[in-house]
Please model this.
Amino acid sequence: MPIEIRELVIRAEVDPRQSEGLQAGQGPGAAADREQLVRDCVEQVMEMIHQKEER
Model:
């Protein structure tokens, strides 16, 4: 018998000390790093969509 999950709760805690060094606009390569991060995220999402369509 399959199990159906009707609700999923996700919680995350952010440590402000760690996020201070990751603010946008810091350093010369911040824009390039952000663009690479966006490209990586889009690639992963597209891969997930492709896998879902194969099922």
The chain has two helices and no strands. The chain has a mean pLDDT of 79.
